[in-house]
């Protein structure tokens, strides 16, 4: 199966790709020679009996910027029905970070033609890991400032540079994911985008400017997609109230990046901040229905799980005020079987809403430090990948 043999009516299975598993100049300047986030994965300890830490990748702690390893990822993804990698892309006024996984790995893999790829501009501030803040009594203001490595700053002029770079390096690639002939481009934080560029009118001007710049580079425009997920909007972190605004601004589709909270959030004990995946499945279904009332094409996101403890301050222990620390609860019971059930529900949701394009997103392919991964791991092996293939077979 490759991108040229996909049926036109087949639902795209888009796995979000977090490119943090190779050395790069930024990491080495901040943390020291050879650092990658694998260092966090190796050293995480369980917080309570039964807590599934540390995660142990079956393939070991590999370098995904190596095209040979990228080729291996592509093969196992395609074999199990994943059609597209949506790469987290980091651009800070021209300063890039972790682009090597895409530019040196995926785009130079011998079998890259088997898969599509696209970009999600992860336009958020980049901080240090593990967290510097997190112990009661620490000066949080000082430590938050100290932990900020790369602040995001938006301007209309910088948007021109973003489009020029993407046109030169990505958009013209034969396996870049296009919708209506236009390259798909997601924006992670539309709240910060609009805050810095100005609400509504100026924001729309920004997207229009990017479209015109793409046309100047010989493309028909850009297909813009908005992440509407935001934990400040509602208990579920899926921001359905933003859909009408996204349409006015000029986005052509929406998705909610990470639905991990449940109605139990406010009552969870500090001694055990965890939720069951069964409840997370209910949250997904509820959020999908609310989002689709907004009218824009919606790509349901299926969350594999959530466990960000590898990034938490290494001095914390239970009980702790996880809400004050802005730590999301740990999801338990996210077995491949349960994950497969949620994938099946996502396929049914896409079929029911009858909106184009048909796509489900998986969060994530390799977000090991947040407990979201499809790649093989010691506990379940290839179980999550097999679950996608089974759900897709049922759909077809």
Helix content: 25-40%
Under CATH, the topology can be stated as TIM Barrel
Question: What is the CATH homology-level superfamily?
Answer: Glycosidases
The number of distinct helices, counting runs of at least 4 residues, comes to 12
CATH architecture: Alpha-Beta Barrel
Order of helices and strands: EHHHEEHEEHEHEEHHEHEEHEEHEEEH
Question: What report would you give on this structure?
Answer:
- The chain has one domain: Alpha-Beta Barrel (TIM Barrel), CATH 3.20.20.80.
- The protein is built from 12 helices and 16 strands.
- It has helices at residues 25-31, 38-43, 67-79, 100-105, 140-146, 156-171, 190-197, 201-216, 243-249, 277-292, 336-353, 383-395; strands at residues 12-17, 84-92, 95-97, 116-121, 126-127, 148-150, 178-179, 182-187, 223-227, 253-255, 274-276, 301-303, 330-332, 359-363, 366-367, 372-373.
- Helix 10 (277-292) runs parallel beside helix 11 and helix 11 runs parallel beside helix 12 (383-395).
- Mean pLDDT is 90; it is low at 1-8 and 135-145.
């Amino acid at each position: 199966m490759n991108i040229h043999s996909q049926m036109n009516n087949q639902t795209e299975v888009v796995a979000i790709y977090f490119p943090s598993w190779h050395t790069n100049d930024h990491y080495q300047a901040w943390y020291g020679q050879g650092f990658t986030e694998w260092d966090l994965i190796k050293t995480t300890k369980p917080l309570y009996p039964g807590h599934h830490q540390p995660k142990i990748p079956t393939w070991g702690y590999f370098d995904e910027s190596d095209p040979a390893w990228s080729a291996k990822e592509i093969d196992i993804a395609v074999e199990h029905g994943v059609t597209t990698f949506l790469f987290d892309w980091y651009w800070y006024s021209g300063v890039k970070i972790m682009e090597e996984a895409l530019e040196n790995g995926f785009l130079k893999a011998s079998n890259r033609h088997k898969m599509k790829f696209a970009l999600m501009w992860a336009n958020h501030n980049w901080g240090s890991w593990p967290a510097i803040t997190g112990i009661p009594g620490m000066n949080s203001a000082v430590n938050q400032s100290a932990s900020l490595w790369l602040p995001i700053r938006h301007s209309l002029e910088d948007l021109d540079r973003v489009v020029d770079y993407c046109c030169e390096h990505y958009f013209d690639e034969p396996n870049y994911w296009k919708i209506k002939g236009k390259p798909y481009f997601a924006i992670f934080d539309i709240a910060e985008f609009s805050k810095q560029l100005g609400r509504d009118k100026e924001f729309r001007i920004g997207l229009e400017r990017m479209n015109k710049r793409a046309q100047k580079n010989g493309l028909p425009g850009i297909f813009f997609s908005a992440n509407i997920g935001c934990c400040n909007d509602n208990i579920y972190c899926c921001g359905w109230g933003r859909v009408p605004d996204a349409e006015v601004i000029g986005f052509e589709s929406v998705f909610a990046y990470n639905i991990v909270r449940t109605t139990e959030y406010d009552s969870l004990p500090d001694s055990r901040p965890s939720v069951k995946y069964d409840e997370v499945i209910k949250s997904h279904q509820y959020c999908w229905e609310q989002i689709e009332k907004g009218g824009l094409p919606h790509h349901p996101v299926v969350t594999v799980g959530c466990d960000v403890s590898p990034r938490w301050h290494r001095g914390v222990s239970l009980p702790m005020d996880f809400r004050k620390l802005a730590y999301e609860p740990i999801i338990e019971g996210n077995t491949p079987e349960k994950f497969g059930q949620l994938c099946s529900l996502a396929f049914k949701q896409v079929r029911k809403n009858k909106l184009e394009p048909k796509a489900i997103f998986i969060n994530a392919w390799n977000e090991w430090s947040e407990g979201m991964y499809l790649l093989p791991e010691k506990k379940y092996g290839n179980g999550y990948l097999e679950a996608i293939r089974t759900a897709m077979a049922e759909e077809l």
